[in-house]
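Let's practice the habit of predicting before peeking. Look at the sequence and jot down your guess about where helices and strands might fall. Then scroll down.
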Amino acid sequence: MFLTKECDYAIRVVRALSDYEKKTVKMVCDIEHVPFNFAYKILKKLERADIVISVRGALGGYQLSRKLDNLTIFDIISAVNDNLFINECLKPGHECPHNAGGNRCNVHIKLADIQDNLITTLGDITFASLLDV
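Done guessing? Here is the structure:
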């Protein structure tokens, strides 16, 4: 699925860090009501995507590393979800019995259009505009 609970939590995690202050995982969880295990896993994925940085040690935590106006909803979703397809038939290499001779069926074509529009829209929404800052 394209927009999972993890995607929702990831957006909340970034919202908790949107003030650029360093916060522990527990602080993020308390602010956004995200389960600890989810938050920790999400923060690691966001760190790999260079959206947050981690500070080690007793006074450690996580901080947002990108400006809100350069961070889109699509950036966050794609950082935590590598399965960005609204339907399985859109995955590369998927073999559908309704696709004959390399031609895609009308359902596939329409779903691909919807997915492209969704990705474009999510890529146009910056976190700054989402938070109205």
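How did you do? The beta strands are 52-55, 61-64.
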